[in-house]
Amino acid sequence: MRVRIQSSTIKGRLTPPSSKSMMQRALAAAMLANGNSVIHNPCKCEDADAATDIIQRMGSVVTKKENSVEITSKVSEAPKSIHVGESGLSLRMFSPIVALKPEEMEITGTGSILKRPVQNIIEGLENLGIECENPGKGFLPIRIKGGYKSNFAKIDGSLGSQFLTGLLMALPLRKEDTTLKVKDLKSIPYINMTLDLIKHFGIEIEHENYENFQIKGNQIYQPTEYTIEADWSSAAPLLVAGALKGIVTLEHMNPDSYQADKAILDALQKCGASITWEGNNLTVEKKALNAFDFDATHSPDLFPPLVALACYCAGESRIKGVHRLEHKECNRGIVLKKEFAKLGVRIRIEDDEMIIPGGSVQGGLAKSNNDHRIAMALAVTALASPSPIEIGQHECVAKSYPEFFTDLRKIGGGVAQFYFDSQFV
User: Which residues form a coiled coil (predicted)?
Assistant: First the structure.
Protein backbone atom coordinates (compact mmCIF):
# COMPACT_ATOMS: atom_id res chain seq x y z
CA MET A 1 0.00 0.00 0.00
CA ARG A 2 0.94 3.60 -0.48
CA VAL A 3 -0.70 6.91 0.30
CA ARG A 4 -1.01 10.07 -1.80
CA ILE A 5 -1.09 13.46 -0.06
CA GLN A 6 -1.61 16.82 -1.71
CA SER A 7 -1.24 20.43 -0.63
CA SER A 8 -3.80 21.23 2.05
CA THR A 9 -4.86 23.86 4.53
CA ILE A 10 -4.63 22.65 8.12
CA LYS A 11 -7.16 23.70 10.73
CA GLY A 12 -8.52 21.80 13.70
CA ARG A 13 -8.08 20.24 17.13
CA LEU A 14 -6.73 16.82 18.03
CA THR A 15 -5.58 14.83 21.04
CA PRO A 16 -2.38 12.95 20.17
CA PRO A 17 -2.03 9.31 21.24
CA SER A 18 -0.60 8.50 24.64
CA SER A 19 3.16 8.24 25.06
CA LYS A 20 4.44 4.81 24.07
CA SER A 21 7.67 5.49 25.96
CA MET A 22 5.79 6.14 29.20
CA MET A 23 3.39 3.26 28.52
CA GLN A 24 6.15 0.67 28.16
CA ARG A 25 7.88 1.92 31.31
CA ALA A 26 4.60 1.87 33.25
CA LEU A 27 3.85 -1.69 32.13
CA ALA A 28 7.29 -2.81 33.29
CA ALA A 29 6.91 -1.07 36.66
CA ALA A 30 3.43 -2.57 37.16
CA MET A 31 4.87 -6.02 36.44
CA LEU A 32 7.54 -5.48 39.10
CA ALA A 33 4.97 -4.45 41.72
CA ASN A 34 3.28 -7.37 43.46
CA GLY A 35 -0.43 -6.61 43.39
CA ASN A 36 -2.88 -4.64 41.26
CA SER A 37 -1.86 -1.52 39.33
CA VAL A 38 -4.00 0.53 36.95
CA ILE A 39 -2.69 2.47 33.95
CA HIS A 40 -5.04 5.21 32.77
CA ASN A 41 -5.11 6.65 29.24
CA PRO A 42 -3.06 3.72 27.86
CA CYS A 43 -1.21 3.91 24.58
CA LYS A 44 -2.58 1.66 21.84
CA CYS A 45 0.13 0.83 19.34
CA GLU A 46 2.35 -2.07 18.28
CA ASP A 47 5.18 -1.19 20.67
CA ALA A 48 2.78 -1.10 23.63
CA ASP A 49 1.37 -4.44 22.49
CA ALA A 50 4.90 -5.88 22.52
CA ALA A 51 5.50 -4.70 26.10
CA THR A 52 2.11 -6.07 27.16
CA ASP A 53 2.95 -9.45 25.68
CA ILE A 54 6.24 -9.51 27.61
CA ILE A 55 4.69 -8.83 31.01
CA GLN A 56 2.03 -11.45 30.33
CA ARG A 57 4.71 -14.00 29.50
CA MET A 58 6.40 -13.02 32.77
CA GLY A 59 3.23 -13.92 34.70
CA SER A 60 1.20 -10.71 34.89
CA VAL A 61 -2.53 -10.76 34.20
CA VAL A 62 -3.57 -7.84 31.97
CA THR A 63 -7.19 -6.70 31.80
CA LYS A 64 -7.97 -4.07 29.18
CA LYS A 65 -10.86 -1.69 29.81
CA GLU A 66 -12.25 1.26 27.85
CA ASN A 67 -9.65 3.80 28.94
CA SER A 68 -7.46 1.90 31.36
CA VAL A 69 -5.43 -1.26 31.77
CA GLU A 70 -5.29 -3.25 35.01
CA ILE A 71 -2.16 -5.29 35.70
CA THR A 72 -2.19 -7.97 38.35
CA SER A 73 1.40 -8.94 39.04
CA LYS A 74 2.44 -12.13 40.76
CA VAL A 75 5.63 -14.12 41.29
CA SER A 76 6.05 -16.82 38.64
CA GLU A 77 8.71 -18.82 36.85
CA ALA A 78 10.38 -17.14 33.92
CA PRO A 79 9.24 -18.15 30.42
CA LYS A 80 11.65 -19.82 28.06
CA SER A 81 11.52 -16.82 25.75
CA ILE A 82 10.18 -13.29 25.34
CA HIS A 83 9.41 -11.52 22.06
CA VAL A 84 9.99 -7.76 21.76
CA GLY A 85 8.31 -7.32 18.37
CA GLU A 86 10.00 -4.38 16.61
CA SER A 87 10.33 -2.29 19.77
CA GLY A 88 13.81 -1.00 20.51
CA LEU A 89 12.74 0.23 23.94
CA SER A 90 11.23 -3.12 24.91
CA LEU A 91 14.42 -4.88 23.81
CA ARG A 92 16.80 -2.66 25.74
CA MET A 93 14.59 -2.04 28.78
CA PHE A 94 13.28 -5.54 29.42
CA SER A 95 16.64 -7.31 28.91
CA PRO A 96 18.00 -6.10 32.30
CA ILE A 97 14.60 -6.62 33.93
CA VAL A 98 14.12 -10.24 32.91
CA ALA A 99 17.77 -10.85 33.91
CA LEU A 100 16.57 -10.67 37.52
CA LYS A 101 15.25 -14.20 36.98
CA PRO A 102 17.82 -17.02 37.42
CA GLU A 103 16.35 -19.19 34.68
CA GLU A 104 17.75 -19.25 31.16
CA MET A 105 15.69 -17.19 28.73
CA GLU A 106 15.87 -16.25 25.04
CA ILE A 107 15.08 -12.73 23.84
CA THR A 108 14.03 -12.37 20.23
CA GLY A 109 12.00 -10.08 17.97
CA THR A 110 10.87 -9.49 14.42
CA GLY A 111 11.32 -7.16 11.44
CA SER A 112 13.65 -4.18 11.77
CA ILE A 113 14.69 -5.05 15.34
CA LEU A 114 16.62 -8.02 13.96
CA LYS A 115 18.96 -5.55 12.22
CA ARG A 116 19.76 -3.54 15.35
CA PRO A 117 23.02 -4.39 17.13
CA VAL A 118 22.78 -5.82 20.64
CA GLN A 119 26.45 -5.88 21.65
CA ASN A 120 26.07 -2.99 24.11
CA ILE A 121 23.25 -4.88 25.87
CA ILE A 122 25.37 -8.01 26.14
CA GLU A 123 28.41 -6.12 27.41
CA GLY A 124 26.34 -4.24 29.98
CA LEU A 125 24.72 -7.40 31.32
CA GLU A 126 28.00 -9.32 31.41
CA ASN A 127 29.63 -6.48 33.36
CA LEU A 128 27.06 -7.16 36.09
CA GLY A 129 27.61 -10.92 36.07
CA ILE A 130 24.80 -12.05 33.75
CA GLU A 131 25.68 -14.99 31.51
CA CYS A 132 24.88 -14.26 27.85
CA GLU A 133 24.99 -16.25 24.63
CA ASN A 134 24.48 -14.58 21.28
CA PRO A 135 23.77 -17.03 18.45
CA GLY A 136 22.83 -13.99 16.35
CA LYS A 137 26.47 -12.82 16.44
CA GLY A 138 25.84 -9.21 17.34
CA PHE A 139 22.11 -9.28 16.65
CA LEU A 140 19.08 -11.00 18.13
CA PRO A 141 18.45 -13.53 19.55
CA ILE A 142 20.21 -13.28 22.93
CA ARG A 143 20.14 -16.06 25.51
CA ILE A 144 20.64 -14.96 29.09
CA LYS A 145 20.95 -16.74 32.39
CA GLY A 146 20.03 -14.24 35.06
CA GLY A 147 21.13 -13.42 38.54
CA TYR A 148 23.19 -10.25 39.02
CA LYS A 149 26.55 -10.95 40.65
CA SER A 150 28.52 -7.70 40.44
CA ASN A 151 27.79 -4.56 42.45
CA PHE A 152 29.52 -2.18 40.04
CA ALA A 153 29.52 -1.62 36.28
CA LYS A 154 30.62 0.92 33.71
CA ILE A 155 27.89 1.66 31.19
CA ASP A 156 28.37 3.27 27.76
CA GLY A 157 25.52 5.77 27.37
CA SER A 158 26.58 7.05 23.96
CA LEU A 159 24.02 4.90 22.10
CA GLY A 160 21.10 6.13 24.19
CA SER A 161 19.34 5.76 27.50
CA GLN A 162 17.07 2.76 27.01
CA PHE A 163 19.38 0.06 28.38
CA LEU A 164 20.19 2.26 31.38
CA THR A 165 16.44 2.68 31.93
CA GLY A 166 16.13 -1.10 32.22
CA LEU A 167 18.99 -1.28 34.72
CA LEU A 168 17.52 1.54 36.82
CA MET A 169 14.21 -0.33 36.94
CA ALA A 170 15.70 -3.75 37.71
CA LEU A 171 18.58 -3.16 40.12
CA PRO A 172 16.58 -1.73 43.07
CA LEU A 173 15.12 -5.25 43.44
CA ARG A 174 18.53 -6.80 44.14
CA LYS A 175 19.44 -7.58 47.74
CA GLU A 176 22.73 -5.69 47.30
CA ASP A 177 23.36 -2.04 46.47
CA THR A 178 24.70 -1.29 42.98
CA THR A 179 26.79 1.54 41.56
CA LEU A 180 26.67 2.40 37.86
CA LYS A 181 29.25 4.68 36.28
CA VAL A 182 27.77 6.02 33.03
CA LYS A 183 29.87 7.58 30.28
CA ASP A 184 28.59 10.02 27.63
CA LEU A 185 24.88 9.55 28.34
CA LYS A 186 22.49 10.58 25.55
CA SER A 187 18.72 11.20 25.76
CA ILE A 188 18.96 12.45 29.34
CA PRO A 189 15.29 13.60 29.37
CA TYR A 190 14.23 9.96 29.06
CA ILE A 191 16.23 9.08 32.17
CA ASN A 192 14.37 11.85 34.00
CA MET A 193 11.14 10.25 32.78
CA THR A 194 12.26 6.88 34.12
CA LEU A 195 13.33 8.23 37.50
CA ASP A 196 10.06 10.14 37.88
CA LEU A 197 7.96 7.11 36.94
CA ILE A 198 9.66 4.62 39.26
CA LYS A 199 9.46 7.18 42.08
CA HIS A 200 5.69 7.09 41.56
CA PHE A 201 5.92 3.32 42.14
CA GLY A 202 7.98 3.81 45.34
CA ILE A 203 11.56 3.48 44.06
CA GLU A 204 14.27 6.04 44.87
CA ILE A 205 17.59 6.36 43.00
CA GLU A 206 20.31 8.96 43.51
CA HIS A 207 22.77 10.14 40.90
CA GLU A 208 25.56 12.65 40.40
CA ASN A 209 25.21 14.58 37.16
CA TYR A 210 23.91 11.46 35.35
CA GLU A 211 27.40 9.95 35.63
CA ASN A 212 27.25 8.01 38.90
CA PHE A 213 24.04 6.25 39.91
CA GLN A 214 23.77 4.90 43.46
CA ILE A 215 21.06 2.24 43.53
CA LYS A 216 20.02 0.88 46.92
CA GLY A 217 18.87 -2.73 46.98
CA ASN A 218 15.93 -4.33 48.79
CA GLN A 219 13.48 -1.73 47.46
CA ILE A 220 9.89 -2.68 46.71
CA TYR A 221 7.68 -1.50 43.86
CA GLN A 222 4.30 -0.42 45.22
CA PRO A 223 1.17 -1.17 43.16
CA THR A 224 -0.44 2.10 42.17
CA GLU A 225 -2.40 4.02 39.55
CA TYR A 226 -0.58 5.89 36.80
CA THR A 227 -1.82 8.13 33.98
CA ILE A 228 -0.01 8.23 30.63
CA GLU A 229 0.57 11.65 29.08
CA ALA A 230 -0.06 12.56 25.47
CA ASP A 231 2.96 11.69 23.32
CA TRP A 232 5.21 14.58 22.30
CA SER A 233 6.89 12.38 19.66
CA SER A 234 3.55 11.84 17.91
CA ALA A 235 2.57 15.47 18.48
CA ALA A 236 5.67 16.80 16.71
CA PRO A 237 4.60 16.14 13.09
CA LEU A 238 1.12 17.55 13.83
CA LEU A 239 2.64 20.73 15.26
CA VAL A 240 4.86 21.05 12.20
CA ALA A 241 1.75 20.63 10.02
CA GLY A 242 0.19 23.63 11.74
CA ALA A 243 3.38 25.68 11.33
CA LEU A 244 3.53 24.90 7.61
CA LYS A 245 -0.07 25.15 6.44
CA GLY A 246 -2.49 26.74 8.89
CA ILE A 247 -3.29 26.27 12.55
CA VAL A 248 -3.62 23.24 14.81
CA THR A 249 -4.51 22.87 18.48
CA LEU A 250 -3.40 19.78 20.40
CA GLU A 251 -5.32 19.03 23.57
CA HIS A 252 -4.19 17.42 26.84
CA MET A 253 -0.51 18.27 26.36
CA ASN A 254 1.71 18.56 29.44
CA PRO A 255 3.78 21.78 29.32
CA ASP A 256 6.00 20.42 32.12
CA SER A 257 6.57 17.00 30.55
CA TYR A 258 9.85 15.10 30.96
CA GLN A 259 9.49 13.77 27.41
CA ALA A 260 12.53 14.67 25.30
CA ASP A 261 10.54 15.52 22.19
CA LYS A 262 8.82 18.44 23.90
CA ALA A 263 11.92 20.21 22.50
CA ILE A 264 10.05 20.50 19.19
CA LEU A 265 8.69 23.73 20.67
CA ASP A 266 12.21 25.19 20.81
CA ALA A 267 12.70 24.54 17.09
CA LEU A 268 9.29 25.96 16.17
CA GLN A 269 10.02 29.07 18.20
CA LYS A 270 13.44 29.49 16.58
CA CYS A 271 12.03 29.35 13.06
CA GLY A 272 9.25 31.85 13.79
CA ALA A 273 6.05 29.80 14.18
CA SER A 274 3.36 31.14 16.53
CA ILE A 275 3.05 29.08 19.75
CA THR A 276 0.24 29.61 22.26
CA TRP A 277 -0.66 27.74 25.44
CA GLU A 278 -4.14 27.80 27.01
CA GLY A 279 -4.04 25.47 29.98
CA ASN A 280 -3.03 22.08 28.57
CA ASN A 281 -4.06 23.01 25.03
CA LEU A 282 -1.24 23.94 22.66
CA THR A 283 -1.79 25.89 19.43
CA VAL A 284 0.76 26.32 16.64
CA GLU A 285 -0.01 28.65 13.73
CA LYS A 286 1.78 29.37 10.46
CA LYS A 287 3.95 32.50 10.22
CA ALA A 288 6.90 33.39 7.99
CA LEU A 289 9.50 30.70 8.67
CA ASN A 290 13.25 31.23 8.79
CA ALA A 291 16.09 28.71 8.91
CA PHE A 292 17.07 27.42 12.34
CA ASP A 293 19.89 25.60 14.14
CA PHE A 294 18.90 22.84 16.54
CA ASP A 295 20.72 20.22 18.62
CA ALA A 296 18.73 16.96 18.51
CA THR A 297 21.38 14.85 20.28
CA HIS A 298 19.03 14.18 23.19
CA SER A 299 15.88 14.00 21.05
CA PRO A 300 16.85 12.12 17.86
CA ASP A 301 13.25 11.14 17.04
CA LEU A 302 12.68 14.80 16.16
CA PHE A 303 14.96 14.60 13.11
CA PRO A 304 12.22 13.56 10.62
CA PRO A 305 9.64 16.24 11.52
CA LEU A 306 12.42 18.84 11.80
CA VAL A 307 13.54 17.98 8.26
CA ALA A 308 9.95 18.50 7.07
CA LEU A 309 9.90 21.88 8.84
CA ALA A 310 13.29 22.94 7.48
CA CYS A 311 12.21 22.23 3.89
CA TYR A 312 9.97 25.30 4.02
CA CYS A 313 12.19 27.67 6.01
CA ALA A 314 14.04 30.49 4.23
CA GLY A 315 17.73 29.55 4.15
CA GLU A 316 19.67 26.49 5.33
CA SER A 317 18.76 24.84 8.62
CA ARG A 318 21.23 22.75 10.61
CA ILE A 319 20.35 19.88 12.93
CA LYS A 320 23.03 18.40 15.15
CA GLY A 321 23.13 14.80 16.40
CA VAL A 322 23.25 12.71 13.21
CA HIS A 323 25.28 9.99 14.99
CA ARG A 324 22.13 9.14 16.99
CA LEU A 325 20.27 8.03 13.83
CA GLU A 326 22.25 5.00 12.74
CA HIS A 327 20.49 2.35 14.82
CA LYS A 328 16.85 3.39 14.53
CA GLU A 329 14.24 1.45 12.49
CA CYS A 330 16.61 2.17 9.62
CA ASN A 331 19.77 4.22 9.30
CA ARG A 332 17.59 7.28 9.60
CA GLY A 333 20.17 9.85 8.50
CA ILE A 334 20.95 8.08 5.23
CA VAL A 335 17.28 7.33 4.54
CA LEU A 336 16.18 10.92 5.15
CA LYS A 337 18.84 12.13 2.73
CA LYS A 338 17.86 9.55 0.09
CA GLU A 339 14.08 9.91 0.29
CA PHE A 340 13.97 13.69 0.46
CA ALA A 341 16.29 13.83 -2.57
CA LYS A 342 13.46 12.14 -4.49
CA LEU A 343 11.34 15.20 -3.62
CA GLY A 344 13.98 17.69 -4.75
CA VAL A 345 15.51 18.41 -1.33
CA ARG A 346 19.30 18.03 -1.37
CA ILE A 347 20.19 17.29 2.24
CA ARG A 348 23.88 17.34 3.18
CA ILE A 349 25.48 15.55 6.11
CA GLU A 350 28.70 17.07 7.41
CA ASP A 351 30.24 15.36 10.42
CA ASP A 352 27.46 15.32 13.03
CA GLU A 353 25.22 17.90 11.33
CA MET A 354 22.41 17.55 8.83
CA ILE A 355 21.98 20.61 6.59
CA ILE A 356 18.59 21.12 4.92
CA PRO A 357 18.00 23.79 2.25
CA GLY A 358 14.61 25.47 2.31
CA GLY A 359 12.34 26.11 -0.65
CA SER A 360 13.20 23.16 -2.88
CA VAL A 361 10.35 20.64 -2.42
CA GLN A 362 8.94 19.51 -5.77
CA GLY A 363 6.72 16.54 -4.86
CA GLY A 364 7.14 13.02 -6.17
CA LEU A 365 7.49 9.45 -4.92
CA ALA A 366 9.21 8.40 -1.70
CA LYS A 367 8.97 5.59 0.80
CA SER A 368 9.22 5.25 4.55
CA ASN A 369 11.67 2.32 4.57
CA ASN A 370 9.29 0.93 7.23
CA ASP A 371 10.19 3.79 9.59
CA HIS A 372 7.07 5.23 11.23
CA ARG A 373 8.64 8.62 11.91
CA ILE A 374 9.84 9.04 8.33
CA ALA A 375 6.36 8.11 7.03
CA MET A 376 4.81 10.86 9.17
CA ALA A 377 7.48 13.39 8.18
CA LEU A 378 6.93 12.73 4.46
CA ALA A 379 3.18 13.17 4.97
CA VAL A 380 3.65 16.54 6.66
CA THR A 381 6.07 17.62 3.93
CA ALA A 382 3.37 16.88 1.35
CA LEU A 383 0.96 19.37 2.93
CA ALA A 384 2.89 22.33 1.51
CA SER A 385 4.34 20.69 -1.61
CA PRO A 386 3.48 22.25 -5.00
CA SER A 387 2.84 18.73 -6.33
CA PRO A 388 1.46 15.70 -4.48
CA ILE A 389 3.76 13.32 -2.64
CA GLU A 390 3.16 9.56 -2.65
CA ILE A 391 4.52 7.55 0.27
CA GLY A 392 5.20 3.84 0.13
CA GLN A 393 5.10 1.57 3.19
CA HIS A 394 3.01 4.16 5.02
CA GLU A 395 1.23 1.55 7.16
CA CYS A 396 4.31 1.34 9.42
CA VAL A 397 2.84 4.27 11.42
CA ALA A 398 1.00 1.53 13.39
CA LYS A 399 4.20 1.11 15.39
CA SER A 400 3.50 4.30 17.33
CA TYR A 401 0.46 6.16 15.89
CA PRO A 402 -2.02 3.85 14.09
CA GLU A 403 -4.54 6.67 13.54
CA PHE A 404 -2.05 9.17 12.14
CA PHE A 405 -3.47 9.42 8.61
CA THR A 406 -7.04 9.45 9.91
CA ASP A 407 -6.17 12.29 12.29
CA LEU A 408 -4.30 14.17 9.57
CA ARG A 409 -7.43 14.02 7.42
CA LYS A 410 -9.53 15.32 10.33
CA ILE A 411 -7.56 18.58 10.39
CA GLY A 412 -7.70 19.05 6.62
CA GLY A 413 -4.85 16.94 5.28
CA GLY A 414 -5.54 15.79 1.71
CA VAL A 415 -5.02 12.05 2.20
CA ALA A 416 -6.01 9.38 -0.36
CA GLN A 417 -4.98 5.71 -0.29
CA PHE A 418 -4.61 3.20 -3.09
CA TYR A 419 -2.94 -0.13 -3.70
CA PHE A 420 0.79 -0.63 -3.68
CA ASP A 421 2.35 -0.46 -7.14
CA SER A 422 5.08 -3.04 -7.80
CA GLN A 423 6.94 -0.39 -9.81
CA PHE A 424 7.13 1.92 -6.81
CA VAL A 425 10.73 2.33 -5.55
Answer: none
Q: How far apart are the first and last CA of the chain?
A: 12
Amino acid (one-letter) located at 149: K
- pTM of the predicted model as reported, rounded to 2 decimal places: 0.91
CATH H superfamily, domain 2-17+230-419:
Enolpyruvate transferase domain (3.65.10.10)
Closest CA to 105 of 142, 134, 138, 137: 142
Q: For residues 349 and 325, is the Cβ–Cβ distance under 8 A? A: no
For 41, the 3-state DSSP assignment is: coil
pLDDT digits (tens, 9 = 90+) for 213-225: 999 999 999 999 9
Supply the DSSP string of 259-287, one letter for each residue: -GGGGHHHHHHHHT-EEEEETTEEEEE--
Is 320 one of the annotated binding-site residues?
no
For residue 83, the cross-strand partners are 108
Q: CATH fold of 20-227, please?
A: UDP-n-acetylglucosamine1-carboxyvinyl-transferase; Chain (3.65.10)
The pLDDT tens digits of the residues spanning 118-141 come to 999 999 999 999 999 999 899 999
The total number of residues shown for the chain amounts to: 425
Query: Binding residue per annotation — 124?
Result: no
301 is in an annotated binding site: yes
Closest CA to 306 of 348, 271, 352: 271
Question: For the chain, what is the radius of gyration of the CA atoms?
Answer: 21
How many CA atoms are closer than 13 Å to the CA of 204, on its beta-carbon side? 1
For the ranges 153-167, 277-291, 316-330, the maximum mean pLDDT occurs at: 277-291
Catalytic residues, by residue number, are: 301
Is 269 assigned to a binding site?
Answer: no
Torsion 62-407-364-293 (CA) sign: negative
* 122 close to 153: Cβ distance less than 8 angstroms: no
Q: Cis before residue 304, ω within 30 degrees of 0?
A: no
